Amino acid sequence: ACAVHCRYCFRRQYPYSEEPRRLEDWEPAMAEIESSPEIHEVILSGGDPLVLNDHRLAQLCQRISRIPHITRLRIHTRLPIVLPSRITTELCSLLTSLPLQVLVVVHANHAAEIRNDCLAALQQLVRAGLPVLNQAVLLRNINDTADAQEQLSLSLVNAGVMPYYLHQLDRVAGTQHFEVPQSVGQQIISALQARLPGYAVPRYVQEIPGATGKTPVLHERT
Ligand code: SF4
Description:
The chain has helices at about 25-35, 55-65, 80, 90-95, 115-125, 145-160, 180-195; strands at about 40-45, 70-75, 100-105, 130-135, 160-165, 205, 215. It is an alpha/beta fold. Strand 4 (about 130-135), helix 6 and strand 5 form a beta-alpha-beta unit.
């Protein structure tokens, strides 16, 4: 499950209630990973893995860490942004004590989110020694200007968080009013490249059904 239902989420209709609930239920997935030595990284993603309590999260992470060829674990979570109190000393200790390189990928869309408790939560993760990256979604009338994206990148970098991805909106029913033309997104990225150091410019990407990973937005959609 997720702590929030983002209006533009492509998983809005996802049947979370059918997901495995006990550690034993994850064993088929663990067995698949164990039999695939070419896999070196596991991603725990949306829903949000941090909706698990520390005990269950530790059980899952420790189970993953016992797979010899897994060296990295990525936690994709929006909770540091929408429920920053979830980031605790205990959680940081849990993540940093794993015998894996753990990366945390958060999801903030606007500089206005990187304040107060949220800023403190991000800094707590960073100070614990966890690499923290951000992915944002390009949203009309929310963050679809170079100024808005520049402020977002600067707020993140100043908190120790690397801007990672800027996502083109997935075409989900009921979200058309958020869509930004790719030509506008490309102009924003060009402006960011002129204004910011390279590490502060996110990669502009889109999800294409059937593709094995994110696809860079290089050409305007026709
Ligand atoms: S936090 Fe991520 S997975 Fe959860 S509703 Fe928002 S976009 Fe979807």
